Amino acid sequence: MRHQEKIQNERQPECYPFLKWAGGKTQLLSKIGKVLPQYYARYFEPFLGGGAVFFYMVSNNNMRSEAHLIDINKELINTYNVIKSNVEELIVILVKYQEEYNKSPVKFYYDLRDKFDRDATTIAKAARTIALNKTCYNGLYRVNRNGEFNVPMGRYKKPVICDSENLRNISNALLNSKIHLYFSDYRTVLVGKTKEDDFIYLDPPYDPVSTTARFTGYTEYGFTDKDQRDLSLIFMKLTDRGSKVLLSNSDTPFIRELYKDFSRYMCQVNALRSINSSSSKRTGHKELLISNYSTNTG
After folding, report:
1. Which helix (H) or strand (E) covers residue 186, if one does?
2. Residues of the chain above pLDDT 70, percent
């Protein structure tokens, strides 16, 4: 059942990420909120992931423009589209999955993970994505070279597989005709679609802080040092174009060097790394927020 499109100026019910996501920005929203530009023409987020910043802007009535939400992960974009258009059918499946998990967690998890039907409906695929994310190890999304999800089961006492209220609120937000979702590479979107006064939030896979911290399993393609360099060059092109750009990444010498021309707009923030197996190693990490505009004037 489709919800009515959100009426202009009507306050959108609060919504938040429906997935756990490595590098998710929920913990930094209070800081990011302070450096958002005061004015922009359109909003672009080409590394959508869990969508924490978008949901924050929607929930605080700051999403007053056309928004383009993009990711190279097909399963992720499919899940967003299903929530947008078929949320009630999705909830029915997730409620069933919750019941099955509660009866036999291990059997449910590995049956769902290892017996994937590539010809399944879009709704079935979305339900699988959400259920695995809520029950896998630390909410990690990782695929092998064949694009197969290969994360082991997590250790949760009572994971919530179906948050019906939040899913319906998200569906309501996405049904706004100004919100556009699509699967694409970040280069295609940033170079070909953005214009002067657009606001682009970039949250790429982070530069690893050590040789053992590299994580490139978000898609079967990974994200390399070359990708980081390419993105920094596009950041400069967008600046020359007159777009407003905010980027988050690890605070490493490599990233600081790539964005040294914007050092006056760098802000160091503290963050947690939720995917570390040791809870003692999840704290004390430094990240950077880098913009090409003054955060005092937007």
Report:
1. helix 186-192
2. 86
